[in-house]
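Sharing in case it's useful to others searching the archive later.

Someone asked me privately for the predicted structure of Methyltransferase type 11 domain-containing protein, so I'm posting the question and my answer publicly. Question first, with the sequence:
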Amino acid sequence: MRALSSLLFRSSRKKQPFGGFSIANFSTQNVDDSHHSRLQIFDRNLKRKQRDRAAWLMSSKDPLLDNVADNLLDRLHDCKKDFPTALCLGGSLQAIRRSLNGRGSIEKLIMMDASSEMVQACKNAADVSNNDNIESVYVVGDEEFLPIKESSLDLVISCLGLHWTNDLPGAMKMNETDFEAIIWELRIACTMAQMERDGGISPRVSPLAQACVRDAGNLLTRAAFTLPSVDVEEYTVKYESALELIEHLRSMGETNALFQMNTILKRDTALATAAIYDSLFAEEDGSVPATFQVIYMTGWKEHPSQQKAKRRGSATISFKDIQNEFGS
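And my answer, the predicted structure tokens:
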């Protein structure tokens, strides 16, 4: 099972001028590392290298990423508000830019990733984008040390970008950011193959929330966002084989980056994983499905104009009255 994550966060502020068309590179080598030292689940340097490689492996269009990005941006239609300056943070940068199509009335878009190769690939792809009227700024930076001035943004989008963050609540507090996905078939096949060939299990997937929707809502609340909204969608992608699925994950930069993993995956174990996956989940036409369960999370920065909960005890209708009216 693989876990992906992505977020959408909105804020209210007065319009301010921002930047030009450029690539900025922010080094985090001299930054106090106490934020990282508290939690070391993922190897951030390894993940950066994986995304550098994926920048040149990924397809110019990916139906899975495009569908997820499109559904994420659809949530902007629910808001009667414009977002002139937006930050797209890691993950599926190109899919977000391809899918904007005027949603959110974004005038300036900051594309940021810890991978310099991913940022460069995104800039190269901008020439063929349908969103040429959007001013673009390209930034190489780490979401755990966000190099953006506080209250300078109207919107932050992270589509499949935060699930490799060691301290997700902390990063969300700094980022103002919505999303997670799970491939349960792959986790089952990998576990069975390791038990059969290696006699034990080495961690090869990210830790997952046991109660995903509830935990996602708690993350938003811990990060001080208001009016939290969480919903779930499932996407099923069919592949010719399990090996094709693994190559797709590799091209998205979604290979393992856990600190505690066994770095050597034996060839026999890898082939056994693919064989078990095919035997357990192959369909009649010979294809194998991968089910991505995606959690979309939306939160707002606190503002006096937002609706407030009524004081306790102020209700004029009880749940018992509602039950009597509409039945059980």
